[in-house]
Design a protein that fits this description.
Keywords: ATP-binding, Helicase, Hydrolase, Nucleotide-binding. This is DNA helicase IV. It comes from Klenkia taihuensis. GO terms for molecular function: 3'-5' DNA helicase activity; ATP binding; DNA binding; hydrolase activity. By secondary structure, this protein is an alpha/beta fold. The protein folds into 4 domains: about 170 residues, no CATH class; about 150 residues, P-loop containing nucleotide triphosphate hydrolases (Rossmann fold), CATH 3.40.50; about 160 residues, no CATH class; about 150 residues, 3-Layer(aba) Sandwich (Rossmann fold), CATH 3.40.50.300. The chain is about 45% helix and about 15% strand. The chain contains 32 helices and 21 strands. The strands form 5 sheets. The protein has a 6-stranded parallel beta sheet with strand order 8-7-11-12-6-13, with helices on both faces. Strand 14, helix 26 and strand 15 form a beta-alpha-beta unit. Helix 6 crosses helix 7, helix 19 packs across helix 24 and helix 26 runs antiparallel to helix 31. The radius of gyration is 33 Å and the shape is globular. About 5% of the residues have low confidence. The structure holds adenosine-5'-triphosphate. The site of adenosine-5'-triphosphate (ATP) has 22 residues, from helix 4 and helix 6.
């Protein structure tokens, strides 16, 4: 385009974009008014009307959030269609047409009509003659990138398979801020297919580093919330990520897309009331993550149910009674029949034991010396049972043989007792069991969370006391409501002519005490996300799992329970698995929970790491013997990665120098060190944030390889790769992860020899 044509096009687009912003303002004003109207609509004592009112307030509230989020970069671009002279504008949110039946003024990027914006190519133009990306700063149009999809005769398509290549490359080379940003302008066709894929079943996205798995998973979440708004607004959507640093890194993406009602959790947050980032030693975590641990937990529960070792003498009602293991076993069988859940079966065990003891005592007390029938009548027996039930010796015995247990108590007792472990962990080797032993007061770890959840499933909560308390609260609420109504009635104007019906309408005319109490009871103003996050038994409408290759079998079991419909998006890279219990094959991991209800999509293009760095990483991957191929980089940076050998004593000083130098080049910077050098590196780099606090928006960060997973930085300093390789339980994966974090520059510093697989760096 000549510069004057560009100027004219820019001016035209500016006019259009200004018009769209005016509509955005109007839509926002309308939503604010509607919300206000819904809030101030009079109260009516009708659950349906109240529900509608709440829904209207929520609906308009959500719309306001979406419209606010759409302010930055409202318009993404436009599609010029072959068959329709009117261009179709695509944006972050939809804005309605003026006339019924016409095209919307702005089509939401998630609507079906927007699809060609991401997928049309010169080979498959989908009816689109031209695609235009519109760049804006605030409300000002700053540039346009056009792609002509219907070529003139004789014109050859230069097809690299990229959509909106200019816009894409601009996005990819931009400096990073330390927070992931959305990619709605430049989603690629292979990514779009995943984002819009059917919500049913588990969709696994396997892709190498930088292929946009995280980006795709989050945009898919936004797409599903748009497409299945009603269902997901009620059931909620859960996003699970590996670390707090990672969750912080991705936290802005969904709000920027106008979606705020999503629960984000690390693996240590999946149990309400517990939030841990503490990890076990790799070998311990591996044992705790095995599916066999479900059997261990189940056996540990059984071990606390009516297991009498040897015989026991009790003095009940001044009678000496001898109980044998077999007697108690019978009672245990009855109790287990009463409930599958340990705590709920306890009353049946208690009752059974009292019956057994009462029978024994009655046999003695009431036996007729002349050999006739027992002399105790039904009332005597009832009294006897009551008495026995209250005997301290009996209460203590029930406490010992069938204690009420919380999951925490069960696992504390189990892990702090080699004997209990030996009884419950028959399926584990002695060495594995030894790994599980620990002090009773040891803090919970991320790998304990699925075990606690498993225990919860088997123990249940005896909530009879709570239910009784709730009934009492409800009665008190009723009394209070009646008191309020009486008071209102009493304060009715006495000036009114007694003979005439008062025209004054009082609350008591519209409500009764039940209604008033119920209203106070039902009002739960928490959002779906808040309620879901607080409720252990909540089941989500969709679950997104990132860095899913790291999850243990037990963690999968928890997630399958949190989403029984198995509507999940699971993204990860088997070549980056760093934990012992992590995945080597998706089939192996998912089949036990989902049988055949899962499918796989593959991403092959690396949008993050430039070719120069990716060549080194690909060598490392190949040397590891992995059958997976490294993804193809979409761009080159023109800068070669560097390697520098330094004397061991000077290594960290040099790291500090190089880091300062790279950080000075702009954007974000990270130093990745093997665990053995971490503490020394913290001391050598006082300005860097590290570990769980690492935040690259605040300056350089210092990370061990496992902590770098999923993150990216403009510059990366990799320290002592040979140690990274040697120290990790899957050192090859750790090195591959570390090498693929940079978007621009990589500097390797080492005192030891470089691993052979990195010889490309020194051969040059
Ligand atoms: N279509 C796209 N347009 C613009 N940027 C993109 C696109 N796809 C991916 N990116 C960018 O590429 C980078 C890598 O994406 P992302 O972190 O989602 O990759 P990943 O597959 O999760 O990587 P890893 O396996 O290393 O965690 C991000 O900066 C992301 O914004």
């Amino acid at each position: 385009m000549s510069s004057s044509t560009t100027d004219q096009a820019l001016a035209e687009e500016q006019e259009h974009v200004t018009g769209l912003y005016a509509r955005l303002d109007a839509a926002r004003e309308l939503a604010v008014t509607r919300r206000q109207q819904a809030i101030s609509a009079p109260l009516v004592d009708n659950p349906q009307a109240m529900g509608e009112k709440e829904a209207a307030v929520r609906f308009h509230g959500t719309r306001i959030v979406q419209l606010d989020a759409a302010e930055a970069g409202l318009v993404l671009g436009r599609l010029d269609r072959e068959e329709n002279p009117q261009p179709l504008y695509v944006g972050r949110t939809g804005l309605p047409a003026d006339d019924a039946g016409g095209d919307p003024a702005l089509v939401d990027w998630r609507a079906p009509a927007s699809r060609p914006f991401y997928t049309a190519t010169p080979f498959r133009p989908e009816g689109i003659a031209r695609r235009r990306h519109i760049r804006t700063l605030g409300r000002k149009v700053t540039g346009i990138d056009d792609e002509v999809l219907v070529l003139a005769e004789g014109e050859e398509a230069d097809d690299r398979g990229l959509t909106g290549e200019a816009a894409l490359l601009r996005a990819l080379t931009a400096e990073r801020t330390g927070r992931m940003t959305d990619i709605v302008r430049t989603i690629q066709a292979e990514q779009d297919a995943i984002i819009r894929s059917d919500s049913r079943g588990i969709l696994v996205v396997q892709g190498g580093p930088g292929t946009g798995k995280t980006a795709v998973a989050l945009h898919r979440a936004a797409y599903l919330l748009y497409t299945h708004r009603d269902r997901l607004a009620r059931s909620g959507l859960l996003v699970v990520g590996p670390t707090p640093t990672f969750l912080r890194y991705i936290a802005d993406v969904l709000p920027a897309l106008g979606e705020t009602g999503v629960v984000m959790a690390g693996l240590g947050d999946l149990r309400p009331g517990l939030s841990t980032t503490r990890v076990d030693e790799p070998a311990v975590a591996e044992v705790k993550g095995r599916l066999a641990m479900a059997d261990v937990v189940a056996a540990a529960v059984k071990d606390r149910q009516g297991v009498l070792r040897g015989t026991r003498e009790l003095v009940v009602d001044r009678e000496r009674i001898r109980l044998r293991a077999g007697d108690v076993a019978k009672v245990r069988t009855q109790a287990r029949r009463a409930s599958r859940l340990h705590n709920l079966a306890r009353p049946a065990f208690y009752r059974g034991l009292v019956d057994l003891l009462a029978q024994r005592v009655a046999d003695r007390l009431g036996s007729d010396v002349r050999g006739g029938e027992n002399l105790l009548d039904a009332e005597d027996r009832r009294a006897l049972r009551r008495e026995i039930a209250g005997e301290p010796a009996v209460v203590d015995l029930v406490e010992e043989l069938w204690p009420l247990l919380t999951p925490e108590e069960l696992l504390r007792d189990l892990f702090s007792s080699p004997d209990r472990l030996a009884r419950a962990g028959k399926g584990l080797s002695e060495a594995d069991r030894a790994l599980l032993v620990r002090d009773a007061d040891a803090p919970w770890t991320v790998s304990d969370v699925p075990l606690l959840e498993e225990a919860d499933e088997l123990l249940g909560v005896d909530d009879s006391a709570e239910r009784a308390a709730a009934a009492r609260r409800r009665q008190a609420g009723l009394d209070e409501a009646q008191r309020v109504l009486d008071l209102l009635h009493g304060s009715r104007s006495h000036d009114a002519d007694d003979d005439e019906e008062s025209e004054e309408l009082m609350a008591g005319d519209l409500l009764d005490a039940e209604g008033l109490a119920a209203r106070a009871d039902e009002a739960d103003y928490r959002s779906t996300a808040e309620r879901a996050a607080a409720d252990r038994t909540w089941t989500f409408g969709h679950v997104v799992v990132d860095e899913a290759q790291e999850l243990s079998a037990m963690a999968w079991r928890v997630l399958a329970r949190k989403c029984p419909t198995l509507s999940m998006t699971v993204v990860g890279d088997l070549a980056q698995t760093g934990t012992l219990g992590g995945a080597d094959s998706w089939a192996e991991v998912l089949t036990p929970h989902a049988r055949t209800q899962w499918r796989q999509a593959v991403l092959t293009v690396n949008y993050r790491t430039p070719t120069e760095i990716m060549e080194v990483a690909a060598d490392v991957l190949a040397a590891s013997g992995s059958s997976l191929e490294a993804p193809r980089s979409v761009r080159s940076s023109g800068e070669q990665p560097t390697a520098e050998r330094v004397a061991a004593g000077d290594l960290l000083d040099r790291v500090a120098e190089v880091t300062a130098d790279l950080a000075g080049k702009g954007g974000t910077a990270a130093v990745v060190v093997p665990p053995s050098l971490f503490a020394a590196a913290v001391a050598a780099l006082p300005g860097a944030t590290s570990g769980a606090d690492a935040d690259s928006s605040a300056g350089p960060v210092l990370l061990r390889p496992a902590e770098a997973k999923g993150l990216e930085f403009d510059s990366v300093v990799l320290v002592e790769p040979a140690a990274v390789l040697a120290e990790g339980v899957r050192g090859d994966s750790d090195l591959y992860v570390a090498l693929t974090r940079a978007t621009q520059r990589l500097a390797v510093l080492h005192a030891l020899d470089l691993p052979d697989s990195m010889s490309r760096l020194t051969d040059r």
